[in-house]
């Protein structure tokens, strides 16, 4: 099984269509089984295609690009989290080429007003893989030091909605640096989750953000804030950063994480 997580920063990138196509090319090349995306946006005033998905939904357009490449078996689930940049409905998504057995979404923030940018949701898809059910979450959590919406409170709400008996992967942008002791990374690890980066037999340096980005305005170093966690120890062949300019072109203000199980 191969997994990818990426904060795609959708509709905030220059040459956005080209970068969307480069993401589709990488998915076609690596045949990811599950893809978790964050900052997956659609215009507020765009035409509704189906249910709550609109014509310029980034994940929906990615599916169209995959179909152009002959990949007709991918399906998506997407959840609207909050208004972004005044004109977008920003959300989280999961794409998979595996059968989706069930799906769910819920708030992890105390705020539930979607007009407020700190409102956070996670989305879940349970898929069937070799006659086994495995659950995947795509998440975009807040910051550890945020006085109004701290990470620790959001993660506690998340934990209450998980089942330890079910093999589960938690993928996304955690806004918590792996080297910051006593903060979000240590909290997740302390709750019994395994960092697939550390489990991997082969891994690279791991940083998914370089320099200053939104929410990390004073950053001047490489940060590892995007993760794929698993609630049971599994054999990880490789963990590597992708879309970092060395392994595929940069397509977002975050790099992606590519894990082979």
Automatic annotation (TrEMBL):
Coiled-coil regions listed: none
InterPro entries assigned: Endo/exonu/phosph_ase_sf, Endo/exonuclease/phosphatase, TDP2-like
Endonuclease/exonuclease/phosphatase domain residues: 18-254
Molecular-function annotations in GO: hydrolase activity
Enzyme class: hydrolase
Pfam families (alphabetical): Exo_endo_phos (PF03372)
Domain of life: Bacteria
CDD domains, per database record: RgfB-like (cd09079)
Claim: Hydrolase is one of the keywords in the record: yes
Keywords (A to Z) from UniProt: Hydrolase
Keyword Hydrolase: yes
Enzyme nomenclature, EC number: 3.1.3.90
Name used for this protein in its record: Maltose 6'-phosphate phosphatase
């Amino acid at each position: 099984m191969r997994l990818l997580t990426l904060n795609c920063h959708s509709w905030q990138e220059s040459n956005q269509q080209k970068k969307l196509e480069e993401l589709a090319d990488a998915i076609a090349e690596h045949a990811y089984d599950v893809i978790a995306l964050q900052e997956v946006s659609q215009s507020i005033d765009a035409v509704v295609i189906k249910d709550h998905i609109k014509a310029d939904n980034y994940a929906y357009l990615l599916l169209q690009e995959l179909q152009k490449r002959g990949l007709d078996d991918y399906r998506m689930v997407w959840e609207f989290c909050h208004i972004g940049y005044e004109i977008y409905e920003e959300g989280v998504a999961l794409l998979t080429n595996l059968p989706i057995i069930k799906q769910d979404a819920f708030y992890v923030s105390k705020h539930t007003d979607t007009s407020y940018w700190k409102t956070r949701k996670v989305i879940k898809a349970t898929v069937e893989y070799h006659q086994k059910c495995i659950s995947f979450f795509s998440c975009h959590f807040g910051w550890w030091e945020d006085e109004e919406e701290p990470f620790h409170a959001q993660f506690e709400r998340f934990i209450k909605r998980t089942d330890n008996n079910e093999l589960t992967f938690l993928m996304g942008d955690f806004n918590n640096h792996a080297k910051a002791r006593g903060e979000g990374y240590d909290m997740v690890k302390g709750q019994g989750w395994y960092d697939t980066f550390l489990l991997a037999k082969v891994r690279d340096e791991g940083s998914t953000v370089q320099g200053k980005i939104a929410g990390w305005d004073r950053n001047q170093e490489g940060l590892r804030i995007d993760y794929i966690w698993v609630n049971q120890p599994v054999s990880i062949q490789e963990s590597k950063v992708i879309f970092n300019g060395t392994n595929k072109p940069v397509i977002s203000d975050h790099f992606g994480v590519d894990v082979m199980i």
